[in-house]
């Protein structure tokens, strides 16, 4: 992947996918406004380059729908549990909005589930207009439908909003051949193609999200958001993380 200046964005518009766990301290749950402030600062720096940014946020730091479907005793229907998870993403989106606005950045939260007293409803053309006006759009409630992950929501929103790439923020440096915590010799791939990710069952995003990106040629960049400046590098086209594209020339996947 070619190097690029970190003073100008390589991508005109991006969708940044954040897990709910990115908003809390490692090993904890809930929301840490200190952690929110750190990631908000990185997003604002990337936005200041001129890149239009939409953020899809998960809700796993508050709850996951699956946790209510495998307990003994009284059970919650699976679809209901998924809706509860969607509401958790709205809470996270509001916290992220507060962090962004505390840094002077104009922000809009748009939810796939209508809740007028809290935030705007997601409307594609309105979301695009917000970004064109220089606002960061935080996209909550997934797709608004149960049985769909927020990874798939990120892929869907990227396609709907005409984004150039999906930026998948994680706590590791990219996609490895094996778990680097278990095997210190695991290889970090700089580029992969969709077929390799699916064929080797590399857990980058859920299968539906990767398949959707492959079908429409939407590239994905998996990178470590915990390293300061990596979001700026990601939108600038710098050497960071693992880029997943339609085809890797030569079929080789170089390590760092």
UniProtKB/TrEMBL annotation:
What is the first-listed, main subcellular location in coarse terms? cytoplasm
Q: Which InterPro entries match?
A: AceGlu_kinase-like_sf (IPR036393), Asp/Glu/Uridylate_kinase (IPR001048), Uridylate_kinase (IPR011817), Uridylate_kinase_bac (IPR015963)
**CDD domains the UniProt entry points to:** AAK_UMPK-PyrH-Ec
Description of activity control: Inhibited by UTP.
- What keywords does the record list, in alphabetical order? ATP-binding, Cytoplasm, Kinase, Nucleotide-binding, Pyrimidine biosynthesis, Transferase
Q: Where is this chain's protein located in or outside the cell? A: Cytoplasm
Reactions performed catalytically? UMP + ATP = UDP + ADP
Enzyme Commission numbers on file: 2.7.4.22
Q: Establish whether keyword Transferase is in the entry.
A: yes
User: What family does this chain come from, according to its entry?
Assistant: Belongs to the UMP kinase family.
Q: What does this protein do?
A: Catalyzes the reversible phosphorylation of UMP to UDP.
Subunit details for this protein?
A: Homohexamer.
User: Which HAMAP family does the UniProt entry name for this protein?
Assistant: PyrH_B
Q: What is this protein called?
A: Uridylate kinase
- The species is Aureliella helgolandensis
């Amino acid at each position: 992947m070619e190097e690029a200046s970190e003073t100008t964005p390589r991508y005109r518009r991006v969708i940044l996918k954040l897990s709910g766990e990115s908003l809390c301290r490692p090993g904890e749950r809930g929301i840490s406004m200190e952690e929110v402030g750190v990631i908000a600062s990185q997003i604002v720096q990337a936005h200041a380059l001129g890149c239009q940014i939409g953020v899809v946020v998960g809700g796993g730091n508050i709850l996951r729908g699956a946790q209510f479907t495998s307990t003994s005793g009284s059970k919650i229907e699976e679809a209901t549990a998924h809706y509860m998870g969607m509401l958790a993403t709205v809470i996270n989106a509001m916290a992220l909005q507060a962090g962004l606005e505390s840094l002077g950045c104009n922000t809009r939260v748009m939810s796939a589930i209508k809740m007028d007293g809290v935030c705007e409803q997601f409307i594609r053309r309105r979301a695009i207009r917000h970004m064109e006006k220089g606002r960061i759009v935080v996209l909550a409630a997934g797709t608004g439908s149960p049985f769909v992950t927020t990874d798939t929501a990120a892929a869907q929103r990227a396609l709907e909003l005409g984004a150039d790439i999906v930026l998948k923020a994680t706590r590791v440096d990219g996609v490895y051949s094996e778990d680097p915590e278990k095997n210190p010799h695991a290889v970090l791939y700089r580029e992969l193609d969709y077929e390799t990710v699916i064929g080797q069952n590399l857990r980058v995003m859920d299968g539906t999200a990767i398949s959707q990106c492959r079908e429409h040629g939407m590239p994905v960049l998996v990178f470590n958001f915990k390293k300061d400046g990596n979001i700026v590098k990601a939108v600038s086209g710098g050497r960071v993380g693992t880029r997943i594209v339609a085809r890797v020339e030569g079929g080789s996947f170089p390590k760092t």
